[in-house]
């Protein structure tokens, strides 16, 4: 074999190895109320786009890619995208929820932090997130919440997470 084909083979092997060892562009963690608050507090000083979803809710799963796309400029500017899975409100086993979330993250090419809510009490979840008076995360899937750098709610969207509305929300968050 001449030197050129050997180099090609080596380059292909190197690319395959690099693709196998690359870290996923997302992380998955389980959180309770203090964990959720801590995760949001960890990002204080940065704008945050938080999107709730459930793996069993087709509309919220379809919205994930739109949230990721709209949040791209936010992430590029130092902001954060956080996806919050609320499957446990349907009493699904935590292990199966976590496995489903990882599979979904891979298939949808998500980038960001994925939190899996460990509780199954809707009121507890509603109390964990800073919302406008009377708003309930548990009653609306999907939902996108935008927090400005100081941690205040800059805007919220529910049900209709279309590209234009998400882009407008990201603009509000960025200030």
SSE layout and pairings?
Blueprint: H1 3-21, E1 26-31, H2 33-42, E2 48-53, H3 58-70, H4 72-76, E3 80-85, H5 94-107, E4 112-117, H6 122-128, E5 143-147, E6 153-158, H7 163-174
Parallel strand pairs: 1-4, 2-3, 3-4
Antiparallel strand pairs: 2-5, 5-6
Comma- or semicolon-separated keywords:
175 residues, alpha/beta, Glutaredoxin, 6-stranded mixed sheet, 7 helices, 6 strands, globular
3D structure, described in words:
This protein is an alpha/beta fold. It has a single domain, classed as Glutaredoxin (3-Layer(aba) Sandwich), CATH 3.40.30. Helices cover 46% and strands 20% of the residues. The chain contains seven helices and six strands. It has helices spanning 3-21, 33-42, 58-70, 72-76, 94-107, 122-128, 163-174, and strands at residues 26-31, 48-53, 80-85, 112-117, 143-147, 153-158. It has a six-stranded mixed sheet with strand order 1-4-3-2-5-6, with helices on both faces. β5 and β6 (153-158) form a beta hairpin. The chain is globular.
The biggest sheet amounts to: 6 strands, mixed
Structural domains: how many: 1
Query: How would you classify the quaternary structure?
Result: single chain
The mean pLDDT is 79
Strand order of the largest sheet: 1-4-3-2-5-6
CATH topology category name: Glutaredoxin
Query: If you compute it from the alpha carbons, what radius of gyration comes out, rounded to the nearest whole angstrom?
Result: 19 Å
CA-to-CA gap between the ends? 60 Å
